[in-house]
Amino acid sequence: MDYEKIGLKAGLEIHQQLDTGKLFCRCPSYLRSDKPDYLIKRKFHKVAGETGDIDEAVKYEAELDKEFVYYVYKDNCCLVELDESPPLLINEEALNEALKIALLLNCEIYPVSQIMRKIVIDGSNTSGFQRTVLIAHDGFIETSFGKVGIETIALEEDSARPADEEENEKVRFWKLDRLGIPLVEIVTKPDMKEPEQIKEVALKIGEILRACKVKRGIGTIRQDLNISIKNHDRVEIKGFQEPELMIITINNEIKRQIENIKNKKTKGEVRGTLPDGTTKFNRPMPTKARMYPETDLPLLYITRERINEIKRNLPKLKQELRDELRKKGLNEELINLILEGNFDEFKTLMAVYDRDANLVAKMITIWRNEIASKNKKQISEIKEILNERLLEEILIKLKKGEIKESEIKSTMNKLFEGKTLEEIMQEEKCDDNVLEEEIVKIVKEKPGLRPGGYMGLIINKLGGNIDKRKAMEILNRLLNNC
Q1: Is the same domain home to 434 and 415?
Q2: Which residues constitute the domain of residue 434?
Q3: 8 Å CB contact between 108 and 142
Q4: Residues 402-416, buried b or exposed e (16+ Cβ, 10 A)?
Q5: Per-residue pLDDT tens for 318-342?
Q6: Of 114, 115, 29, whose CA–CA distance to 77 is shortest?
Q7: Are 148 and 289 members of one domain?
């Protein structure tokens, strides 16, 4: 397909939850699966925006006359979520994480910003609006196709989430546990001209987000695609986040818009993704009359001192970490394993023992995985027993010369079996004494042989599983003293 000829133009909107408390209250931001403590009910009413106009999408939803039922949990919902109390000041930790993301995306930070109310039209907020604040603008991300601009970055509160109830045309159920969790909204400029570029940008922004304090798992990131071709209005596609479906979804939407142009139906709309890479109609495209100032909160000031402090502590991106690990001599297999959630532990253990990065990497990845496989256990169970503190103790003893590198893997196995480090070291000491006694006997029985000849006799008598390095150390000491 000739994307240039059809005039493909696309941008992304990415919403990522931050792993902090809620944005405008002090409730914790975890989700619940049990029964709610109580329910509240609301209805949606159409209200004019700041311009005096009523949004077309608002009219559409209000005319459906739905009732919204909200599940409330006392330990992570408060009067702010119920829209019965004014919001508290913005969560400072969440703001700092949003600023980190903005700086990693090369954005300019707004020194002063107004927190706004954005009309919510699906009932996913008890107040009928979502609080949001612009914190940065005019950034960029580098791609193999060239730079893609970052239009804006906002910090906003997440909406309520659908409850596991059977809905009908008149009633919709929501859980308030998610309402108020901080979200960073990243809006790119419509600079993307090819499907592969769109996918590349989505994955690169995802990597930047994962370098910061964000929530992980299903539902913690939501990504939308704004897409159009020549002679067709912009279409917003919700739920555009499965990498394996991105290219398919884009090409299907292009074909749909080409067909629309033939039938002279070129109006934009909001659509949702389907599992086969096609989309379905959700609602009309919202107009711009959706924002008005939040009068219960002061202006947000972000000082140059605060920005400079965050700049000094920006996290490293995955590619930077890869380069750092390569310089330490790790191969690609170990690098991949370390970057799968083990980097902080690797860094901690390297501070204890920095002589052999490969040894430290194997301890926390390959050897733990082998123990898990051998014992048919989850890796989380292995990490609970062979935890960071215990591995630190092993490395401290290695550094002091109280344990040998060749003994570490077997030591980890014995620790998992329930033995203490002291018991294992005593066993090793006894084994060394037995080994030395046997070597002394062999040397006395067969004097005058070369070291290689003695090693053959030692292995023949004691078996191939002995510590050959230890045996050679003992043998050389005995022969040198003869």
Answers
A1: no
A2: 429-481
A3: no
A4: ebbeebbbebbbbbb
A5: 888 999 999 999 999 999 999 988 9
A6: 29
A7: yes
